[in-house]
Request: fold
Amino acid sequence: MNKRVTLKDIARATGFHVSTVSRALDLNSRITLTEDVVRQIREAADAMGYRRNRVASGLRTNRTMTIGVVIPDITNDLFPPIVRGIESVLEPEGYASIIVNTDNLPEREIRLVDVLTERGVDGILHAAPLRTDTSISGLLRQGIPVVTLNRRIEGSTVPYVVNDERAGIEMMLRHLHEAGHRRIAHIAGPQALSTGAVRLEAFRDTCAALGLDEKACPIAVSERFDDDEGRRCAAELLDGKAAFTAILAANDRLALGAIDTLKKAGRAVPTDVSVTGFNDLPSLQLIEPKLTTIRIQHFEAGRAAARILLSMLLHPEEEIATETVLPVEIVARESVAPPDNRKVKKQA
Amino acid sequence: MNKRVTLKDIARATGFHVSTVSRALDLNSRITLTEDVVRQIREAADAMGYRRNRVASGLRTNRTMTIGVVIPDITNDLFPPIVRGIESVLEPEGYASIIVNTDNLPEREIRLVDVLTERGVDGILHAAPLRTDTSISGLLRQGIPVVTLNRRIEGSTVPYVVNDERAGIEMMLRHLHEAGHRRIAHIAGPQALSTGAVRLEAFRDTCAALGLDEKACPIAVSERFDDDEGRRCAAELLDGKAAFTAILAANDRLALGAIDTLKKAGRAVPTDVSVTGFNDLPSLQLIEPKLTTIRIQHFEAGRAAARILLSMLLHPEEEIATETVLPVEIVARESVAPPDNRKVKKQA
DNA sequence: TTGAAAGCGCTAACAA
DNA sequence: TTGTTAGCGCTTTCAA
Reply:
C-alpha cells in the first residue's frame, strides 16, 4: 500500500525543483529544458512509478481530460457502437469518458448532467437528447462545449451529428412503392424523441410525394422503440379499417414485434405483408425472416461527434462543422415482396 | 458563459467565512451550526446555482466519488446489463463511473487502468480480467479497492462475484444426457479467459461423472466467443472422426455459429443434432431454433459487485463477502431433442 | 458555534 | 534554462 509518488518526491530524489520536474514531464511544454535534465527526471519518474495526479492538475488547469457521454440506455443495442466510436477518437488524445444513462427521463437527465459538471468534464457528447431541451442551454451558459448526436437542437448553435433519417425513410418507402405496394402502414416511433418525429414526418411527406392516398397509409404511434410496442401497434393496424400490404416500421425492434403479431394473426411475412425496419441491428442477421432495413452509421456518428468536440476543446477559435449528416443506405433482405393484389381486394 | 459559483462567492454574498459555508453545505457534517445560518447559506447557494467542485474536493479529501469500470467490450451484449447493474447501486450513493474497454488486450488493460488511477477513482470494478493478472496486483499495491466480476483471482484476497458456471455446464450436460445423448461435443471458449477454461473443465469433469467415453466427447476450442468461431469449430467437429448427436457450446454466440454451419452441412437442429448455449442473450428469443441455454444474472452480478465495493469504500474495517457465486438456471427451449440413434450408427 | 489558516498536487506567471 | 511563488476550490485542524 505505497503512497502515491508526487512531483515533490521526484524533486527530492533528483534535486530539481517541482516546477522543473513538472515541465520535464509535460510532453507539450513550450519551455525548453536541458536535454540531460529532462532525461534524468524522466528516468527517475519511471523508476519511481510516477503517475500524474489529474485531479490536482485538473484543479489547476481547469481541464480534467474527461468528457461526459449522455445516452438513453447502454443496454439499447444502438448505443454501444456509438460509445466505442467516441472512445476511438478521444482515448488516443488522453481523454476518458464518464457515461450516464438517462432512460429518456428529463429529471434523470438533469441530475446526471449535474453529476458530469460537478466532476468538471471538459465537454459533453449528448446522444439523443429529448425534443424539448432539458440540459443543453444550461451547459452552454456554463461555457461547457456540447455536441449532440442523433438529433439537432433547433434554433441553436450546438453542433450536431445525425443520420440522414429523412432520406432513409424516403428510400424505404420508394423501395416498397417500386415493389408494387400502394397501401403502406407506418408504425411510428415515440413522438417525444426526434427520431420518432422526423421519421413520421418523412413518411407523410414521401406518401404525399408518391401520390399515395392518406387513407391507404394508416399510422400507429408507439410509446417506446421496443418489440412489445411493435406488437401492440401491429395489432392496432390489423384492427383498423384500412387495409395494407406493407408495414414500414420506424425501427427494427418495432418491425420485429410487428412481424410477431402478423405471424400470430396468420399473415406470412413477406408473402402476405411486407415489413421493413430501420437501424440494421447486428442481431438481425440471425433472425428469420431477414429484415429489410436502413443501415445507419452508429460507430461513425460517435467518431464524428467526438472529433467535433475535440476540435472545440483544442481550437476554440476555429470554425467547426455545426451540421454533420451521415448518409444511410438501404439493406434489401427478405422481408419485402410484391403485394398479392388478390388478397388485398378480398380484404378491403 | 457565467463563471462557476464557488464557496468563496457564497461566503462573500452571505458574509460568512468559506469554512462555515463549506460546513453548512456538507450534508453529513458532524459539526453543528446554527440552524438559521445553515438555512441562510443553503438558500444563497441555491439562488446562486452553486454546484460543488468535486475536482477540488477530491484533491483535498482524496475521494473523487468516481469509480472505474473495466470491461472487455461494451458492444458485447453481456456487459451493458452488468454496467447498468453497477450503476443502479452506485449512482444513488453519488458515484459516477468511468468505463473503459480492454478488448481483452493486456497492453490496453494496463494503459486504461492507468487512465483510471490517474483520475483518482475511489475503486475499481473489474469485469472479466484475463487469466494471468495484468493490473490487479498493481492496484492493490496502490491501495485501490478492487472487486472482480465474472472471474476470481486465484490465491488472492480480491473479492469476486461469479456466476455458477460449473453448475451451469453440469446441468446442461445432464440435460442432454437425460434426453438420451451419449456422444456430446463441446465447443470450448478461449482458454485465455476464465469463462472458457472453467466451462471446459466442468465439461470434462461432468463427462467423467456421467461415465461418458472421452472419445465420444470431442472438443473444439475457439479463439473468440463469437459466431465465426462457432462456425469454424462446428466445421472442425464435423470433419473429425468422432460422431456426435449434440453440441454443448460454451456460449450462445458459439452455439449460433455452430447451428449455421450445421444447417449448411445439411444437419437439422435439433432433429439431427441438438445444440445448447450459455448466457441467454436477450436476442435469442427471436432466433430460430430457439436456443436451449443457461441463464446467468448479468444485472445482478453488477449489483452484487458494486455493493461489495461500496462497503469496502464506506466501511473499510468491516468484513466483506470475498466470494459471491450467483446461481444459474437452465432455459429449455427448442434446440434439444432426443438423438436419432439410427443416424448416428450410420454415420459412425 | 464560527473564523483563520494550511495544504491536497499541480501549473504557470514572474524572477533570476 | 531553472527556481520562486502563488493559487486553483475545497476540507479540516486549530484557535477564538
Chain B touches chain A through 48 residues (CB under 8 Å). Residues 344-348 of chain B have pLDDT under 50 and may be disordered. Residues 4, 6-8, 18-19, 22-23, 26, 31, 52-61 of chain B lie near DNA strand D (CB under 10 Å from a C1').
